[in-house]
From TrEMBL:
Alphabetized PROSITE patterns for the sequence: ABC_TRANSPORTER_2 (PS50893)
Database matches in CDD domains: ABC_Mj1267_LivG_branched (cd03219)
Taxonomic source organism: Marinibaculum pumilum
PANTHER family (alphabetical): ABC TRANSPORTER ATP-BINDING PROTEIN (PTHR45772:SF4), CONSERVED COMPONENT OF ABC TRANSPORTER FOR NATURAL AMINO ACIDS-RELATED (PTHR45772)
The name this protein goes by in its record: ABC transporter ATP-binding protein
Gene Ontology molecular functions: ATP binding
Domain of life: Bacteria
Keywords: ATP-binding, Nucleotide-binding, Transport
Database matches in InterPro entries: AAA+_ATPase, ABC_AA/LPS_Transport, ABC_transporter-like_ATP-bd, BCA_ABC_TP_C, P-loop_NTPase
Keyword Cytoplasm set for record: no
A Pfam family hit: BCA_ABC_TP_C
Gene3D superfamilies, alphabetized: P-loop containing nucleotide triphosphate hydrolases
Residue span(s) of domain ABC transporter: 6-254
């Protein structure tokens, strides 16, 4: 088994009287796709928000590359090597596809306000590098034909691909995908699944995927973690988790299992 890139250790989150995460612990081995599943209200988004430092756990620790991330501010997560996409897209609708992808790489550049204002040569070079990298991602994600269009003119499926490109522009070691299949049709979902596996294999990116679309999770995950009412109820290969009695019970009678 590969080393754990992410190690979630006994995380507890309480909102008033609600225990949204109750001693959740699991690891994500480097170079794998890990699926995080659970019925509505299970705590998946809350866990994602802990991983991107929007929430602070009441108890427990989250370790990335063997270091705790709990004192790292949310805006510094990209510098650490953790990228994410959002359930509701967070793009700039009137900006072109390529410019949106460039935004994702900005944190990797060092120019300050003054050098930007003066357009010093270092700034021009950095912009050039960002643009070159954005074009590489445009090609990689099959967005060439729409690269100059404003994002608002694209189908939802293509907009989701742009968001993936923007997250990849920050060179993440770990990519957090929050319901990437939400709102996509069947063909788009097949394409997305292949793309996520390629991102793992070609770019060495480890992926943690929160997703309701069960067939996608089971098809592309190396490992699946299931939570229900804030507790981990199963962890293992897709086949192991699919036949786990607690998982079957949690999904029975819900509309989540697809
Ligand atoms: N900011 C908050 N304040 C109070 N309660 C919250 C907050 N965020 C989440 N909760 C509660 O925590 C629990 C877990 O919610 P969470 O959104 O993490 O579930 P989820 O698994 O992501 O659900 P879904 O699949 O519907 O997105 C729920 O009971 C929810 O109502």
């Amino acid at each position: 088994m590969a080393n754990a890139l992410l190690d979630v250790q006994d995380v507890v989150i309480r909102f008033g009287g609600i225990v949204a995460l109750d001693h959740v612990a699991f690891t994500v081995p480097e170079g794998t796709v890990c699926g995080l599943i659970g019925p509505n209200g299970a705590g998946k988004t809350t866990l994602f928000n802990c991983l991107s430092r929007l929430y602070i756990p009441n108890e427990g620790d989250i370790r990335f590359k063997e270091q705790s991330i709990l004192s790292t501010p949310a805006h510094a997560m990209a510098d650490l090597g953790i990228g994410r996409t959002f359930q509701n897209l967070a793009l700039f609708p009137s900006m072109s596809v390529v410019k949106n992808i460039m935004v994702g790489g900005h944190h990797t550049k060092r120019s300050d306000f003054l050098s930007n204002a003066l357009r010093l040569p270092t700034v021009t070079r950095e912009e050039h590098d960002l643009e070159e990298q954005a074009w590489e991602l445009v090609d990689y994600l099959g967005l060439h034909e729409v690269a100059h269009l404003p994002v608002a003119a694209l189908s939802f499926g293509l907009q989701k691909r742009v968001e993936l490109g923007r997250a990849l522009a920050s060179h993440p070691k770990l990519l957090l995908l929050d319901e990437p299949a939400g709102g996509l049709n069947h063909d788009d979902i097949d394409g997305l699944g292949k793309q996520i596996q390629q991102i793992r294999d070609d770019r060495g990116v480890t992926v943690l995927l929160v997703e309701h679309h069960m067939s996608l999770v089971m098809a592309i995950s190396d490992k699946v973690v299931a939570i229900d009412f804030g507790r981990k109820i199963a962890e293992g290969t897709p086949a192991e988790v699919q036949r786990d009695p607690e998982v079957i019970r949690a999904y029975l009678g819900t509309e989540d299992a697809q």
